[in-house]
Design a protein that fits this description.
12 strands; about 50% strand; 4-stranded antiparallel sheet; mainly beta
């Protein structure tokens, strides 16, 4: 019912996805030298002028679409993030180690876009959508990472559905 909109953060205008994990708002970006996966202020900001900062250790060169955070180390707070990395044609895994997000490998996935998941213990099951510019089709894939915190992601996803030509998953 509001008649006005508050622009919470103007750090970057090219945003891909917004998600809330563990009470914190995060934003993914496709083009910015400031951040590609950033924390928007602290918690769930509502005031204009909030700054979005790149997660420490994450490169600002790839186009990040969707992402999924998990808490796998048994301590409070998220410590693992999976990123649909369109530039890298993969799902990338990073773990928070001593305050810095450290790369823990990638699973190839052409033109990775959508990403969601669920956590059971220390096993993360991811579902990702991706596209193909050459075949004009899209895929829905499943990736199970049972390696836990601070270990390398498995190197392959399983294709569970493919669209007809010239259609896509949204």
């Amino acid at each position: 019912g509001a008649s006005a909109v508050t622009n919470v953060s103007t750090t970057n205008a090219n945003l891909r996805q917004l998600h809330i994990f563990d009470g914190q708002l995060y934003a993914g970006s496709g083009a910015s030298t400031t951040f590609r996966l950033g924390q928007v202020g602290v918690g769930l900001p509502t005031a204009s002028g909030t700054v979005t900062t790149n997660l420490p250790g994450l490169p600002v060169t790839n186009a990040y679409n969707s992402f999924f955070f998990a808490d796998l180390d048994g301590l409070p707070g998220v410590d693992t993030v999976y990123i649909a990395d369109e530039t890298g044609n993969a799902v990338a895994k990073f773990c928070l180690v001593s305050g810095t997000w450290v790369a823990k490998g990638t699973a190839p996935l052409n033109a990775a876009h959508g990403l969601t998941g669920l956590v059971a213990g220390t096993t993360v099951t991811l579902f990702a959508t991706s596209g193909s510019s050459t075949a004009n089709i899209a895929t829905l894939s499943k990736l199970v990472d049972s390696t836990g915190y601070n270990n390398t992601i498995p190197a392959s996803a399983t294709n569970i559905a493919t669209t007809a030509a010239n259609t896509n998953f949204r």
